[in-house]
Write a structure and sequence with these properties.
Elements (H helix, E strand, L loop, with lengths): L5 H17 L5 H17 L5 H10 L11 H12 L4 H17 L4 H11 L5 H17 L1 H12 L8 H19 L3 H4 L10 H13 L5 H12 L10 H21 L12 H13 L5 H11 L3 H5 L3 H20 L5 H23 L7 H16 L7 H14 L2 H6 L1 H17 L16 H6 L18 H4 L19 H7 L9 H9 L32 H7 L16 H14 L30 H4 L5 H20 L1
Helix pairs in contact: 1-2, 1-3, 2-3, 2-4, 3-5, 4-5, 5-7, 6-7, 6-8, 7-8, 8-11, 9-12, 12-14, 13-14, 13-15, 14-17, 15-17, 15-18, 17-18, 17-19, 18-19, 18-20, 19-22, 20-22, 25-28
InterPro entries: API5, ARM-like, ARM-type_fold
Keywords: Apoptosis
Family: Belongs to the API5 family.
Length: 645
């Protein structure tokens, strides 16, 4: 039969097709005739004549469904037509694939995979026909066809041979071009009512998985031309949040690869694609501003990161941080995460301000600078933050730059806003916020009245002020202890006054002068009219000694006769304790003419207040004979008083 002329063969096959179609009732004879016709069409696919191949391609679909035993032979014959040397025959073969899929839906997935392979054709006309057939497959079975397309763009898990990997890479590009080109309207528009349809979700999930494995420019194509136009990405959703996270993770990986060595600078040729994509998603409301800003604060808001970027890349970082911060500030609904991100941005904004000041005038984005300052002003007004000294200097530089004639000409409105934000912070902040140096605690009025003070000791920290009179009455003296705090600043002279009985202490005028004396100035002992008697040896006063009449009279209420002193109405013990506390912080000046009134009282015995008075004797001058005589006379009088008693 192959030896017959082409024209005769054409006439015979057309007559055979006509007889097969006439069988309205599928009798055994009709079925046999149709089966013979299908076999003849399969044979003609290998004919050397293009017309016969074309007839076969156009009519195989008529009988393939009725004879399952011939399906494989018929499908393979159609595939052979797609590889024919004649372009016209190949085009008919592409259409025959779709016709077979319509008759037998179980072949949709396999036929779609073949059509994807046929996208590699070098002829644009043929590629157009193949894409048309893919669109028809999308209309027939969207899920099955999208799964085929997804499998072609996802890189293989295992490495391939060099040739196979090259073919796979070319196919991925071709499929992406189809999805973002002629296939886009068949994926999006017809399925718009099914916003959360299974087919769309399958495609979105596949693309989200493949993004980390694609080059940056292919990621840009997928996101802008395919994912964002999908109905499920028309508003914020779980998938849009995942998309933002995937893009930022890809940007982080790319930034690590592009980080220059020490001293180098980079323009971020690959990372910038991801950064722009993330910012576009943010502006469309398809991502979280907190997630966006956290990424920049972690990776780009630092001195080292800013120094490793060229000016243009620095400008992009500042703009993007400001864009994210603007959305976060507009979201008035407070949350811990929002507050934390704003605080972190304010704390790291100093690096961005310094970078901003170094940029060329044409690269400065004053609106972005104003947004950053709004966050600082918000924190400043909350009284929870004050700018440091370095940041205040930076604010002053920003104020000066924004006030320049050149800046006002180019960005008058934004520059004036910057000035209005900076001035209140400069005027209300005298300096950096540093913690005040803690001062030693001083006794309050209530403690003074009680004759006690706080020395940071356990059990309330209360220490009784001992009077000199206790030793004169023969009471056992407690062992001296070292003290710290205000007691350590007491001078020898102040301790000498504290050991006096209350009615023998300085008069009111003397105490007034003592209070006005600076506590930080050491006083110099002033010589009195009568020199101080020699220091009595320790141990002369024993427990069994009898107190003198003068000592007992000093304790009697009637002995207090001084009416000029406001403390005269206070009992002697309380007044002595009060004076002792007052003298802890105020260093009195020794008074003239007061020693002779003691009548032999021991000025130099250790004051039992819990601290040492070593060196006090060295400051007292040697006694004169006159003073020694008066001292002996006092001792004689005391002996007479004891005898009388």
């Amino acid at each position: 039969m192959g030896d017959k002329p082409e024209k005769q063969q054409v006439s015979e096959i057309l007559s055979q097709l006509q007889r097969a179609r006439r069988g309205q009732v599928r009798t055994s004879a009709v079925i046999a005739q149709q089966k013979d016709t299908l076999k003849r069409l399969i044979e003609l696919t290998h004919s050397p004549h293009s017309q016969l191949k074309t007839i076969a391609a156009q009519n195989i679909k008529l009988y393939i469904k009725d004879f399952p035993e011939l399906e494989d032979d018929a499908i393979n014959a159609v595939y052979d037509l797609c590889e024919d040397s004649d372009q016209k025959v190949r085009k008919e073969g592409y259409r025959a694939i779709t016709a077979v899929s319509k008759e037998l839906r179980k072949w949709v997935k396999r036929n779609a995979d073949v059509l994807v392979q046929l996208l590699q054709s070098d002829e644009p006309e043929e590629v157009e026909v193949v894409e048309q057939q893919l669109n028809e497959h999308l209309d027939m079975d969207t899920l099955a066809t999208l799964n085929v397309l997804r499998d072609q763009i996802v890189p293989p898990e295992e490495p391939l041979e060099a040739d196979d990997q090259g073919t796979r890479d070319r196919l991925r590009v071709l499929v992406l071009n189809f999805l973002t080109g002629r296939g886009k309207r068949h994926i999006i528009n017809p399925h718009a009512p099914a916003i959360d349809g299974e087919a769309e979700n399958a495609l979105a999930e596949a693309l989200l998985q493949v993004i980390p494995l694609l080059p940056p420019h292919e990621v840009e194509t997928v996101v802008k031309e395919l994912l964002i136009p999908l109905p499920s990405f028309s508003r914020a959703s779980k998938q849009s949040t995942v998309l933002m996270e995937v893009i930022l993770e890809a940007a982080k990986t790319s930034w690590k690869a592009e980080t220059p060595p020490a001293g180098g600078r980079t323009s971020l040729p690959r990372t910038r694609i991801y950064l722009d994509l993330a910012n576009e998603l943010l502006q469309k409301g398809l991502g979280q501003a907190a997630t966006f800003l956290r990424f920049y604060l972690t990776n780009f808001v630092s001195k080292a990161a800013q120094q490793s970027l060229v000016d243009d890349a620095q400008c992009i970082v500042i703009r993007h941080v400001a864009d994210g911060l603007k959305l976060l500030l507009e979201n008035v609904a407070g949350s811990d995460e929002r507050t934390q991100i704003i605080t972190s941005t304010v704390n790291g904004s100093g690096f961005l301000y310094a970078t901003f000041l170094d940029l060329n005038p044409e690269l400065k984005s004053w609106p972005s600078c104003a947004i950053l300052l709004k966050a600082c002003k918000l924190r400043f007004d909350s009284r929870q933050w004050r700018p440091s000294t370095d940041l205040l200097a930076t604010f002053q530089s920003l104020l000066d730059t924004s006030s320049s004639h050149e800046t006002l000409q180019m960005n008058k409105e934004a520059a004036e806003e910057v000035q209005s934000l900076i001035r209140p912070m400069l005027q209300s902040t005298p300096g950096p916020s540093t913690p005040a140096t803690p001062r030693p605690a001083t006794p309050g009025p209530s403690n003074v009245g009680k004759g006690t003070f706080s020395n940071n000791k356990p059990s309330g920290g209360r220490v009784q002020i001992k009077r000199k009179l206790d030793s004169e009455l023969g009471r056992p003296a407690p062992s001296p202890t070292r003290t710290s705090g205000p007691m350590a600043n007491a001078t020898v002279d102040s301790r000498g006054d504290r050991s006096l009985p209350p009615h023998l202490g300085p008069n009111r005028g003397d105490r007034q002068r003592t209070k006005t004396a600076p506590s930080s100035t050491r006083t110099t002992p002033v010589a009195s009219d009568a020199e101080t008697p020699p220091k009595r040896q320790k141990g002369l006063v024993s427990e069994g000694s009898v107190p003198s009449l003068l000592s007992r009279l000093a304790l009697a209420p009637g002995a207090i006769e001084s009416k000029s002193d406001p403390l005269a109405l206070v009992p002697a013990k309380r007044r002595a304790e009060t004076e002792g506390v007052q003298q802890q912080t105020k260093r009195p000046t020794p008074q003239r003419g007061r020693v002779s009134s003691l009548h032999g009282a021991d000025l130099h015995a250790p004051a039992e207040v819990g601290f040492s008075i070593k060196g006090a004797a060295a400051r007292a001058k040697q006694p004169t004979p006159e003073a020694v005589g008066r001292g002996k006379q006092c001792e004689t009088e005391k002996d007479k008083d004891v005898a009388t008693l």
